[in-house]
């Protein structure tokens, strides 16, 4: 088993890798401060229950909290690695003739609680996508131009999933909200627009983005979530993933929107 660090504060890491500070769940002010500074924070001391995620969202986001989406439980057994991604989906279901939104493309916070750590492996990693994209302006201008200037169908690869809207969700990987927040998306669902004359180039750039993301993952600092720990992420700014593991690992995931998503 990996020992948990007891350091509550960490200095911002050099480069795009993030090691979230660890904060006891009662210190909402410090948790908000670290989330604003680093884009991620780990809350310790919460009960290992689904309710703890709702409480954590209220504590960290506060009165800016607008919507919570249904909690998801994910259990993996001898799981393969999960690559860097930002939580994002567009899912509406019909319950008794009434539409209910279960996921939102503009979820700006994600909370992940470790309900059962893996016996071996399964460490988490996170990346400051703002820093990553800004760096591409120098290291890979073509990819930077694609991410900031090209429309894609964000969920077109998942078009056969029931509940997804029939109308394509068009957007760019890097955009800004009406109030000026930068959004940096990372989804495996992106495909070229229907009959896009530049479709071959879009597919090539999407593949290059995947390669760039996979290439940087080994260099990112790892951190372990112990039982009950809750990782809170600014979903507009940070991508997250985890290493492969042996044995069984279970997490609970809660996504939300705040007033800052407008």
From TrEMBL:
Q: Region labeled Disordered — which residues? A: 1-27
The record's annotation in Gene3D superfamilies points to: Clavaminate synthase-like
* KW Oxidoreductase (keyword) present: yes
Please state every residue range assigned to the domain named TauD/TfdA-like: 27-251
Could you confirm whether the keyword Plastid appears in this record? no
InterPro entries attached to this UniProt entry: TauD-like_sf, TauD/TfdA-like
Keywords per UniProt: Iron, Oxidoreductase
Q: Which domain of life is it from?
A: Bacteria
Name of the protein in question? TauD/TfdA-like domain-containing protein
Organism of origin is Streptomyces hyderabadensis
């Amino acid at each position: 088993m990996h020992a948990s660090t007891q350091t509550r504060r960490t200095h911002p890491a050099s480069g795009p890798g993030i090691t979230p500070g660890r904060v006891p769940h009662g210190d909402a002010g410090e948790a908000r401060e670290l989330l604003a500074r680093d884009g991620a924070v780990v809350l310790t001391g919460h009960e290992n229950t689904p309710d703890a995620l709702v409480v954590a969202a209220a504590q960290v986001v506060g009165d800016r909290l607008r919507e919570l989406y249904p909690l998801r439980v994910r259990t993996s057994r001898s799981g393969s690695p999960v690559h860097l991604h930002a939580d994002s989906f567009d899912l509406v279901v019909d319950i008794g003739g009434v539409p209910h939104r279960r996921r939102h493309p503009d979820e700006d916070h994600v909370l992940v609680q470790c309900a059962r750590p893996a016996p071996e492996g399964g460490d988490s990693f996170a990346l400051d996508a703002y820093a990553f994209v800004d760096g591409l302006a120098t290291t890979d201008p073509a990819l930077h131009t694609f991410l900031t200037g090209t429309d894609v169908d964000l969920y077109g690869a998942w078009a056969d999933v029931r509940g997804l809207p029939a109308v394509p969700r068009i957007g760019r990987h890097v955009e800004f909200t009406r109030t000026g927040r930068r959004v940096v998306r990372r989804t495996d669902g992106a495909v070229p627009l229907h009959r896009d004359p530049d479709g071959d180039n879009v597919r090539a750039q999407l593949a290059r983005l995947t390669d760039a993301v996979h290439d940087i993952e080994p260099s990112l600092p790892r951190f372990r979530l112990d039982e009950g720990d809750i990782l809170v992420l600014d979903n507009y700014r940070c991508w997250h993933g985890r290493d492969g593991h042996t044995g069984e690992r279970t997490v609970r995931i809660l996504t939300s929107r705040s007033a800052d998503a407008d």
